Amino acid sequence: MRKKKRPFFYQEKKTIWPIFLLFIIGIAIFSIWSIRVPRIRQLFGWHVIDAQSYAKSLLIPVHTPNPLLFRIPTIYPTIEMPPEQVIFAENLENINLEQDRVDQSPLVTPTPGIAWIIKTQRPVSESIAAPDEEDSKAFLIPPVFEHQDFQNDGPAVLSAAIRFYGKTESQYLIAKKIKPDYFDPFVSFEEMETYLHAIYPDLGCQIRINGNTNMLERLVFAGYPVIIRIEREKTFPAWDGDDLKDSRYIFITGLDKNENRITYQDPFIGDRINDTYDQIMADWYAYQRKYMVVYPKDDEWRVQQIFGDQWEKDYNFQSALQKFRKDAEMLPQNVYAWLNIAVVLAQNEQYEEAWNTYRSIQNLSIPQRFFLYNPSLYAAAFHTGNADELGSYADYSLKINAHSEESWLWKGWAMILRNQEEEAAQCFRKALSIKPDYQDALYAVEFLKK
């Protein structure tokens, strides 16, 4: 009924703000709920995070360091790095006492917790499918496929390798230990190896570089799946000017020599993906063709026979370096050949040659995420006294992803070369906030106390 003293054409205005407020509250509740559901994060989380990162780059641009700024570099005095046992000992007498305790203490194996566990429901013996009569193909029975969470390809493939042998494991249990920060962009082969040795003493693993299809065939035909890291292209840029070059771990479970095809699990895409030898070899080359094989400890003698002369790590290093040098001579414009040389040299502590090699190719198109996935070259810059370049590349990587503990660590070491110890301590603490048991950052913190 129309109220008195109002004209007959008066209409009551409806307020829409309560509906709008309820809509906002609904979106907030859905967002909070959805980020706690792994499958929803897996499907939509990547796009949301990349969109946020891209929007941020419009306000704070991401630019690669200009090599011309370091054409005449300032070389800072390098510092001596004491062994870990010296850094962590309160006094030198504690070194021998601590060593005695290690020798006398029994091995304690941690037990993983219960959270998002995937168990392979079949006997271990059924995991290995024998090659066919003509020995032209071999397809191992893969474990139940586990779709990776954000930047969780490393824990996902390691989980697959462990479950292949009938163990109970999941990417979330592994990530809790080696990638506790959800946004951490990088997990190394060595971090996965450390986890495996600590939790599964009955399993062994070997990591080598300069792999090839012949080695993959020998391992898979013998019943051992292989983990490798390959280059992939993103479908959506994470910042303005993103070159889209990214990487991913995959889990190889089958080969067909007649068709020259490889079957594998891609934790981002799906199970039983099939690709050609040539394509895998090309994508694998960007990461030194590094590979990791997990096997029962009792089979170590068998794996050693399969590896042959590549079992000796020194020989593997020398043969890989020789191969990459030859590739660089034949194809001098192949940036990955030079980068592989630099990375291998740095990992073998030949820092000066490694850094000189890297600086010589800065006119080539170096992948923008290179330092995120190859932190060993940070060490080369540090040990050659190139603090300004080291700090510049660390800052650049942190603009791409501020959750890289390796970049925070080496930014801190750059500060130490510049005698900025307070700023260095802040960087080391930031690295430890990302990964609390990060041994290199713990070492750095103790180094500052000496």
From TrEMBL:
UniProt KW keywords: Membrane, Repeat, TPR repeat, Transmembrane, Transmembrane helix
Source organism superkingdom: Bacteria
Membrane-spanning residues: 16-35
Entry annotated with the keyword Nucleotide-binding: no
TPR repeats: 405-438
Pfam families for this protein: TPR_8
Protein name: Protein containing tetratricopeptide repeat
Organism: Flexilinea flocculi
